[in-house]
Amino acid sequence: MSAIRPLHLAAEIGGPPRYDAASHVALARLAEGGALDYVTLNDSFARPGPDALAVLARVAPATTRIGLVPTVTTTHTEPFHVSSAVATLDWVSKGRAGWHADVSTTEAEARLFGRRAAAPPAALWHEAGEVADAGARLWDSWEDDAEIRDVATGRFVDRDRLHYVDFEGSTFSVRGPAIVPRPPQGRPVTVIDGTSGPAREPAARHADVVHVRATSPEQAAVLADELRRGAAAHGRDPDSLRVLVSLTVDLGDAETTPEPGLESGPQLAGRGTYFRGGPVDLAELITRWHRGGAVDGFHLTPVTPERDLERIVNGTVALLQHRSLFRTFYPGGTLREHLGLSRPANRYASARTAGGTS
Predict the structure, then answer these.
(1) Which residues of 293-308 are buried (b: 16+ CB within 10 A; e: fewer)?
(2) C-beta separation of 246 from 281 below 8 A
(3) According to the model, what pLDDT value does residue 354 have?
(4) Do the beta carbons of residue 285 and residue 258 sit within 8 Å?
């Protein structure tokens, strides 16, 4: 039997629209107190409220270790601007940024921009994969030592260490290089929900972390195996892919027994399998699924963030830590270090040092 992989936990800190940062800061700090890998902040063009990436840029200086992963929609947006914004979040958080790539499918959202009509999910997810690819190339377009800041000569950058990416996608093209220096993590962590069929290929090809929805450990294991086989088919190390089960949790009644195995758990607007029970029940479910090798961890969305996240951290997570199933401190300072992921080599620097052309 193979060794059990480290358990990873993340939580959503969204909810009803809020226009002050204090609540988001408080929830992120609460999650950080439990040593969770990262928090997410959901967003879309169909919901009111402030921009998730901008909100987490405000949360960044108020936290020190927790990873910050906003939803960023790749439809109707400019890939160059997306990559710049995510790189900026990595800089202001000192290497704790990720981004949850998502797509916009409705005609109503398309009318907000007026550039093109809504497209089928398969086409949108193909485009999202291209945005992720272009973003990674733009983050690499500055080598780590490109900034020289030589006051005597007035040279800020070594132009030999800046590179055109010359990316041609199906709906856009990007020449580059980026306007933001290479992020502290090299490439911020890419997260994709790979549950739906059209999203699975770009998830296997480009994501560092994949969220899936599953109602049993067996279903989760099948999805994880499929994703890792897809990653291997694209020349990636399948063991570098982290697969987390998305679960919407309601811990309002600590005496309620959860649905056994979640086989009959109701769905909440397609946003995750629903769990209702107490913090101990949730810890038992996480323990059973993870020890069985089905998943690397869980992405938990509290039904009531202020109430349920507190019970997750001080109840469920505390119990998992007491059982030595989850860490009590962060192993490093960056999100990649929390996830056990290495800092990617710069493709252009590698080509240059090997005598290739950029």
Answers:
(1) bbbbbbbbbbbebeeb
(2) no
(3) 66
(4) yes
For residues 227 and 200, give the distance between their C-alpha atoms in angstroms, rounded to a whole number: 7
Give, rounded to a whole angstrom, the gap between the first and last alpha carbons of the chain.
Answer: 44
State the Cα torsion 165-170-172-175 to the nearest 10°: 20
Sign of CA dihedral 271, 273, 276, 280: negative
Cβ count near 7 (within 10 Å): 20
Output DSSP code: residue 343.
P
Query: 198: burial class by Cβ within 10 Å (0-12, 13-18, 19+)?
Result: middle
Helix (H) or strand (E) holding 321: helix 318-322
Percent of the chain residues topping a pLDDT of 90: 77
- Three-state DSSP at 95 gives coil
Q: Each residue of 135-159: b (16+ CB within 10 Å) or e?
A: bbbbbbbbbeebeeeeeeeeeebee
Query: With contact defined as beta carbons under 8 Å apart, do 85 and 50 qualify?
Result: no
pTM for the complete prediction? 0.91
Query: Measured between alpha carbons, how far is residue 355 from residues 136, 140, 147, 348, 358 in Å?
Result: 22, 17, 21, 11, 10
Which tokens sit at 61?
């200086």
Q: What angle do CA 101, 56, 213 make, to 5 degrees?
A: 40
Residue 271: pLDDT band (50, 70, 90) is: very low
